[in-house]
Amino acid sequence: MSSHVDFLSDGSPVFWGEISPCEHIAQFYDTDAVFLDTLSGFIGGGLIAGESTIIIATVPHLEALEQRLDHAGVDVARAMVEGRYIAMDAQAALSKFIVNEWPDDHLFAEFVTELIARAQKKGRRVRAFGEMVALLWAQGDIAATIRLERLWHEICKSQNFSLLCAYPKTGCTQDASESIAEICATHTRII
Question: What is the 3-state secondary structure (H, E, C) of the chain?
Answer without folding.
Answer: CCCCCCHHHCCCCCCHHHCCCCCEEEEEECCHHHHHHHHHHHHHHHHHCCCEEEEEECHHHHHHHHHHHHHCCCCHHHHHHCCCEEEEEHHHHHCCCEECCEECHHHHHHHHHHHHHHHCHHHCCEEEEECHHHHHHHCCCHHHHHHHHHHHHHHHHHHCCEEEEEEEHHHCCCCHHHHHHHHHCCCCEEC
